[in-house]
Amino acid sequence: LQGLVVMQNMQCRNCHAIEGIGGHRGPDLAEVGTRMTKDQLVRQVVQGGGNMPAYGKNLSPYEVEAVVTFMVSLRPAGEAPARDSTFPAIPPKQEAAGTQKGHHEG
Q1: What is the enclosing helix (H) or strand (E) of 22?
Q2: CB 68, CB 56: distance < 8 Å
Q3: Span 57-88, pLDDT tens digits
Q4: How far apart are CA 55 and CA 45, in angstroms?
Q5: Residue 37: how many CB atoms within 10 A of its CB?
Q6: Which residues of 44-75 are buried (b: 16+ CB within 10 A; e: fewer)?
Q7: What number of other Cβ atoms are within 10 A of residue 10's Cβ?
Q8: How far, in Å, CA of 52 to CA of 47, rounded?
């Protein structure tokens, strides 16, 4: 819950609600862990974007990690966290090495 403490200290709830409680300038963070990956959340917190200011100079790396870990946990029970869609969900099957028999001329 260190991330929640960081969010309280940085007054994130002035702009963001969690389950409808808090500000409404930014998106509700109730299920942000299903919408954004850990890397996307780090980038958003550190660099800002849209209406959100950058917090990279206001938070230590530990605080960024804590708040992002907390946000990744904000998702319905049993639902997987968001994943990077540039990578396949299931890796392609690898061809077994040496499955083709070669023909050697002597």
Answers
A1: strand 21-22
A2: no
A3: 999 999 999 999 999 999 988 888 898 877 76
A4: 6
A5: 16
A6: bbbeeeeebeebeeebeeebbbbbbebbbebb
A7: 15
A8: 9
Ranges of H-type helices in 1-106: 2-9, 32-35, 38-47, 61-72
Residues in the chain: 106
Calpha distance 52→16 (Å, rounded): 10
- Is the CB of residue 7 less than 8 Å from the CB of residue 64? no
Rounded to whole angstroms, the Cα distance separating 74 from 34 reads 8
Asked if residues 22 and 16 have their Cβ atoms less than 8 Å apart, the reply is yes
Q: What is the largest CA-CA distance in the chain?
A: 79
pTM for the complete prediction? 0.77
pLDDT band at 52 (very low <50, low <70, confident <90, very high): very high
